[in-house]
Amino acid sequence: AAAISPAGAAALQRLKPFIGAASLLSLFNRSTLIRTSPILLHFSCTAVSTSPSRFCSVVSAAVPARAETSEVKYGAEVRQFRKKLRIVDAKGGPDQGLNRLGETLSVSGWVRTFRVQSTVTFIEINDGSCLSNMQCVMTSDADGYDQVESGLISTGASVSVQGSIVASQGSKQKVELKVEKLVMIGKSDPSFPIQKKRVSREFLRTKAHLRPRTNCFGAVSRVRNALAYATHKFFQENGFVWVSSPIITASDCEGAGEQFCVTTLIPSSGDAADSSPKSIPVTQDGLIDWSQDFFGKPAFLTVSGQLNAETYASALTDVYTFGPTFRAENSNTSRHLAEFWMIEPELAFADLEDDMACATAYLQYVVKHILENCKEDMEFFDAWIEKGIIARLNDVAEKNPVQLTYTDAIELLSKANKKFEFPIAWGCDLQSEHERYITEEAFSGRPVIAIKAFYMRENDDGRTVAAMDMLVPRVGELIGGSQREERLERLERRLDDMNLDKDGYWWYLDLRRYGSVPHAGFGLGFERLVQFVTGMENIRDAIPFPRSPGSAEF
């Protein structure tokens, strides 16, 4: 008999209660069961037990097919995957679809608007692939017109439309789709909250599950995706290795103590809101007994992947992390999120000059990528969100940042003919108003690298560290970086100065004991980058599902 792998045998045992031992055997025969071949199991949900737990177990193993699922024949091969034809494919390119005149094609999407006239009906659908809609022109002889007459077609409904590409009689688009067949996939209730009239972004934050269907947030989503793609592309092309840094950590990279605690000491089964504090174990001294927690000590959601990236840079030379980070800062401003994504490269055998060069090259690379590949969306932002944003980004892509020392920045601000809310003095942190004045007014919109945490390398003057911030218009600080402290004794002294427990950083100190090298890196808040290139004023509109104090919906 043919052998079954251990993983396959375990999977079959899990399925046994649902379809029976005899049915399991009939799934296979000796000639087709091969250890090295993947097997796709297809289930019909109607044959599954009504028990909720069993339903979830079986469905999780099933592989959903397209909406028009047909009967699967025993032994049939899985069909070849093909990229869907999207509206951007039909209307994109320099000809804006004119090269497809006469072609018959099918597009699926959601109804944005529709209007019925005496002899013709116009339906505009969008599938999220681009800003512009596909205008579909339908006459009464088209298959499925009865769905228009019955009132099933409404804003928000999902449809599939088949027809031929013809030249448009209107001025808003070059081509349109002459409908031959319309299929209603999912009707939309009249309460659909996003109609043709404009609504505020504050309102749309309460409908975060539906706001991607608007022009604005569809464009933000596509630009965010393009920025993520360009980020990986830049670092991969320059020899960096992507490292998956942990989300759960026992370290506080920033030393600010604003971390979310991860614990199982609070009961997670049932309704956690009804949990009694008396259920939390305590020591004889009345303190929380962390030894009984899942990790045996306090653990937190990470605020940065930098320390972990440094460990891999000490072996792989140039690495970067790109993932979610968290900060329990009780701030309700338009600049802060509790959950956000960070891009954090680390360069071994590098100093602050190398760090600034990398940060500049990265920013110019991703901005150029957006300007070249998201033209329609950027024109929308330029027209409706921030006038002149394309020209501003072109300046960023073409002009190198101005370098300014911390001391020079303080002097410049002190001489400014402007009253600041926060006073200026050597040794103080630059506030957002200071950063924006420097880049927007003092240097007329050019990015500025201001050369200014325990991991930063101490300069020989004993007063400053080898660190830098990149300041950009409207956002202020976009990138913060430094040359890391590679000298063991100075790093230990820095930890002591900040009252951090050195035992908790033993592994980080080990990097300085075993082949330490000069290294540098920077961190970039991805949502701030999205803000910078789209012009969105509130950072909560730069991420799909914003998390902030008092808000964890969706």
UniProtKB/TrEMBL annotation:
Pfam families for the chain: tRNA-synt_2 (PF00152), tRNA_anti-codon (PF01336)
PROSITE patterns: AA_TRNA_LIGASE_II (PS50862)
Reactions performed catalytically: tRNA(Asn) + L-asparagine + ATP = L-asparaginyl-tRNA(Asn) + AMP + diphosphate + H(+)
GO molecular function: asparagine-tRNA ligase activity; ATP binding; nucleic acid binding
Top EC class, one word: ligase
The enzyme's E.C. designation: 6.1.1.22
Protein keywords: Aminoacyl-tRNA synthetase, ATP-binding, Ligase, Nucleotide-binding, Protein biosynthesis
GO CC field: mitochondrion
GO biological process, one term: asparaginyl-tRNA aminoacylation
Similarity field: Belongs to the class-II aminoacyl-tRNA synthetase family.
Protein name: asparagine--tRNA ligase
Organism whose genome encodes this protein: Genlisea aurea
Taxonomic path: Eukaryota, Viridiplantae, Streptophyta, Embryophyta, Tracheophyta
